[in-house]
Design goal:
Radius of gyration: 19 Å
Helix content: 55-70%
Order of helices and strands: HEHHEEHHH
Number of strands: 3
Mean pLDDT: 88
Length: 124
């Protein structure tokens, strides 16, 4: 996954459910889960398209299992978050943590959060 690609909102929802399930999953299981949990009545082809995109982005591996496919995550949620954060840092802040924090600090970092950050940096 050298060329990291961010996930769309729907792809992220699918991945969150797959990570929560914590086992290889079939599209039919996801269809049932989203139908019960969110009332989404997706067609099989719709979920297959999203799963195919996730395979293409290197997020899932696929294994043929009889007449259906079984999907397994290639990255943990923690690994994905790290890559997403690094991508944002590289794209928007030229890889500079200082530039990123300066942007946040100008508006939104509370003094308590700033103290936490100072402690975190001093522990590194």
């Amino acid at each position: 996954m050298d060329n990291f690609q961010s996930l769309s909102e729907t792809e992220m929802k699918l991945m969150h459910e797959i990570w929560k399930l914590n086992h290889p999953v079939k599209s039919s299981e996801l269809l049932n889960l989203f139908s019960e949990k969110e009332g989404k009545e997706w067609k099989g082809q719709t979920i297959a398209t999203f799963l195919s995109r996730l395979v293409d982005k290197g997020m899932l591996s696929v294994k043929r299992d009889g007449r259906s496919n079984t999907y397994t995550p290639c990255l943990s949620l923690k690994e994905y978050k790290k890559r997403e954060a690094q991508s944002l840092l590289n794209t928007m802040y030229q890889g500079s943590v200082k530039n990123f924090l300066a942007t946040l600090y100008d508006d939104k970092v509370t003094s308590d959060e700033l103290d936490e950050l100072k402690k975190w940096f001093s522990d590194k």
